[in-house]
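To the wet lab folks,

You asked to see what we're planning to order before we commit. Fair enough. Below is the target structure as tokens, and below that is the sequence we designed to fit it. If anything looks off to you, flag it before the synthesis order goes out.
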């Protein structure tokens, strides 16, 4: 025996609820994309290198003349300045005509000459530098310090590092969109499956077979009694040894007639 059960109509999927939830996720992903884009713009504005038209340079400390402020291996983010003052730590190029001309030096301004040139000296040095530093020789002023970042900064000249950094940046920009498309695809598949299940339930009622009753154990019947065969009647004939008289026979016959 089979029982037919029709699926109720209120079990049909509500696709608009899923779409509403997906819309909220879209807004959240869009906000995250805008925040990430804004962060990239701020970093690009402040860290755009001077070699590409920006105002920022990355300098690695290679000497101990500015200890304990800067140590060997520290990386400095240097921004251009317009009006250097006495006491400022500056990054400058060694003027032309001097030994090691064009090299970068990180020292502190401690005086200014009458010709407008600056006198510099390292914090860990006893004597002043011999150079006459003009304002046009000054590259900028350190704004950020990244301890022991110099060795890693040297790796940026490797093509493998440049390719890896570009790939990582592309992944960070494209990952939110890929996740959003995956969630949309999963939500669409789920909605289609629920709609197909609801349509199938409305067209053909689900057939639920009735479970077969389990056998009920019965008590065993009483053991049949063995048939008893009656013993054959035994007639014992007694010998009449006493001789009856004629009067006795008449009396017995009369008694028998009375009984009838």
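Sequence we intend to order:
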């Amino acid at each position: 025996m089979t029982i037919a059960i029709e699926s109720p109509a209120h079990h049909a999927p509500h696709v608009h609820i899923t779409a509403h939830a997906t819309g909220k996720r879209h807004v959240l992903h869009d906000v995250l994309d805008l925040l990430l884009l804004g962060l990239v713009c701020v970093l690009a504005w402040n860290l755009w290198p001077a070699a590409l038209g920006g105002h920022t340079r990355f300098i690695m400390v290679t000497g101990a003349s500015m200890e304990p402020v800067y140590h060997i291996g520290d990386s400095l983010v240097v921004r251009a300045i317009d009006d250097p003052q006495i006491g400022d730590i500056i990054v400058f190029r060694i003027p032309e005509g001097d030994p090691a001309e064009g090299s970068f030096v990180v020292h502190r301004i401690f005086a200014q000459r009458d010709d407008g040139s600056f006198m510099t000296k390292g914090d860990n040095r006893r004597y002043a530098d011999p150079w006459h530093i003009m304002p046009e020789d000054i590259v900028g002023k350190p704004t950020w310090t990244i301890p022991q970042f110099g060795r890693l900064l040297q790796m940026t000249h490797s093509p493998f590092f440049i390719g890896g950094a570009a790939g990582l940046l592309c992944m960070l920009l494209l990952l939110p969109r890929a996740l959003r498309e995956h969630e949309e695809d999963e939500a669409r598949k789920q909605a289609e499956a629920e709609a197909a299940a609801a349509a199938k339930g409305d067209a053909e009622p689900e057939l639920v077979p009735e479970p077969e009753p389990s056998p009920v154990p019965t008590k065993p019947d009483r053991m049949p009694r063995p048939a008893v065969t009656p013993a054959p009647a035994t007639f014992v004939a007694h010998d009449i040894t006493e001789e009856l008289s004629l009067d006795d026979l008449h009396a017995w016959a009369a008694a028998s007639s009375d009984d009838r």
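Structural context that might help your review: Residues 78 and 143 are 6 Å apart (CA to CA). Strands lie at 2-5, 56-60, 75-79, 89-93, 104-112, 118-121, 138-146, 206-209.

Thanks,
Computational group
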